[in-house]
User: What shape does this take?
Amino acid sequence: MNEFATSLMEKSLAFAVRIAKLAQFLGEEKKEFVLSRQIARSGTSIGANVREAQFAQSDADFISKISVALKEDSETQYWLEVLLKSEYINEAQYRSLRNEVDRLVGLLVRTVKSKKRAIGHAISKPSTLQSSTH
Assistant: This one.
């Protein structure tokens, strides 16, 4: 596994831990259970999909798993906005979590683009068998 993939896995795991703690805080301190379950599900799913992608059965499966992580990231952004606007978290908490989510988006997008480039490069490269038969 390369350094970039390791970084993505570590950052998504660290984010999942932060989200788990946020969900715990929301339940225990704010007595808010619906939104806490929603953000816990979407926020921890990002890392779970990244981890699952490491053992994808194909390039298409890998891209699919990372794309699901991107969707979960987007949903997490939504729940963070709802928590801010409903005053369950303050502006500083929101900004801190949102910055982390935005960094994950960048890493996930870069991962998908990199894999698609690698696939495209492999497809456009003529095989030695094809070039030797012509």
User: Anything to note?
Assistant: Residues 66 and 108 are 7 Å apart (CA to CA). The chain has one domain: 3-121.
